[in-house]
Specification:
alpha/beta, eight-stranded mixed β-sheet
C-alpha cells in the first residue's frame, strides 16, 4: 500500500476520494455495499502493472462527499459521477470494473456511454434486466429481504449500527465461504468507513432509489462493450440463476463461475479473479 496515492476529484457537484497506483490506460474500480475502495486491495497492485488503476469511494461512502438528499443517490447521478471522473482524470475512456452496487452502476454506465469503455468487468451483480426478472421470483425476493427492509426510514440505520455495526461483520465475514479471507482489521476498516458521519444514511439511500425504472431496466438492448462477468457461486444474496441468459443482452460476453466462493468474490478468491481478469484483458503474458 506504500505505493498507493490517496487523491480527490470534484465531479457532478461532489468531491470523491480515490486510491490510485500505476500509469497507462485507465482502469476504474467501483465497490459495493457496505464497502469502500478497500475491497479492491488485492486487485490494485496487480493491475497497476498495466494500467492507471483508480479505486473510487462512491458518493456517500468513506471519504467521499455524502449529500443529504435521497435523490442524490439516484442512478442518473451515480452514472454522471463516473463520466465526470473519467473525463476529470484526463481520459476519454476506461476499462470499468464493478462489484455489487458498483456493478449496477457499471452496467448502467455501459449502456449510457458505451463509447467511453474499452471493456467492462462485472462481479456478482446481474445484468439489470436479469435482476428485474429475478425480483419477481419468490427465491430472489427472499434473498433480497434487506433491499425491502432498507426502504424504511431510520430503522435500517439503527439496525446496521447496533452492537458495534455487527450487521457489517455478519454480512461480510458471515456470508464468506472462506472466512480467513477477512481479518479483523479488514472488518474494522469496513465498520470505520460506515461509522463516518452521514455515511449510513447515504449508503442505504442507494437502496431507497433501487426501484426507480432506470436502476434495473428491462427494456435495455444489446450491449456492444466486451464484457466479462465473474460470479462466486455461493452468493447468499444473489442467485446464480440471475446470470443465465445474460448473453442475450451482451454481444461479446464471457462468464467465469467460481465454486465455493461467496458474494465477496474479489476478496475471497483474489488470485483466481485476477487471473480471469488478466486473461480477458490480454495482459496475462506481461510482467
Amino acid at each position: 500500500m506504500n505505493n498507493w496515492r490517496h487523491e480527490y476529484i470534484i465531479t457532478n457537484g461532489v468531491r470523491l476520494h480515490y486510491v490510485t497506483q500505476g500509469e497507462g490506460p485507465l482502469m476504474l474500480m467501483l465497490h459495493g455495499f457496505p464497502e469502500f475502495w478497500y475491497s479492491w486491495r488485492h486487485q490494485i497492485p496487480e493491475f497497476a502493472k498495466y494500467y492507471k488503476v483508480v479505486a473510487l469511494d462512491l458518493r456517500g461512502y468513506n471519504d467521499s462527499d455524502k449529500p443529504k438528499a435521497q435523490s442524490a443517490y439516484a442512478m442518473d447521478e451515480l452514472v454522471k459521477d463516473i463520466e465526470g471522473v473519467i473525463k476529470g482524470l484526463g481520459y476519454n475512456k476506461c476499462t470499468l470494473v464493478g462489484h455489487d452496487w458498483g456493478g449496477a452502476i457499471a452496467w448502467n454506465f455501459a449502456y449510457k456511454h458505451p463509447d467511453m469503455l474499452d471493456k467492462l468487468i462485472v462481479l456478482n451483480l446481474p445484468h439489470p434486466a436479469k435482476f428485474a426478472e429475478g425480483l419477481r421470483t419468490p427465491q430472489q425476493i427472499q434473498r433480497s429481504w434487506y433491499v425491502f427492509f432498507f426502504q424504511l426510514p431510520l430503522l435500517p440505520e439503527l439496525f446496521v449500527q447496533s452492537n458495534d455495526y455487527q450487521f457489517i461483520e455478519t454480512a461480510i465475514k458471515g456470508m464468506a465461504v472462506d472466512k480467513s479471507a477477512f481479518s479483523q482489521a479488514d472488518i474494522d476498516a469496513y465498520k470505520d468507513a460506515a461509522a463516518k458521519r452521514g455515511a449510513l444514511t447515504a449508503t442505504i439511500n442507494y437502496y431507497r432509489n433501487a426501484f426507480q425504472p432506470k436502476t434495473f431496466n428491462q427494456s435495455l438492448g444489446v450491449l456492444e462493450v466486451p464484457t466479462l462477468m465473474i460470479w462466486g457461486e455461493k452468493d447468499d444474496a444473489l442467485g446464480k440463476e440471475l446470470t443465465y441468459g445474460t448473453e442475450a443482452y451482451v454481444r461479446d460476453f464471457q462468464i467465469k463461475y467460481i465454486t465455493n466462493c461467496s458474494h465477496w468474490v474479489q476478496q475471497e478468491q483474489p488470485s483466481l479473479v485476477n487471473q480471469y481478469m488478466r486473461d480477458f484483458l490480454g495482459v496475462a503474458a506481461f510482467v
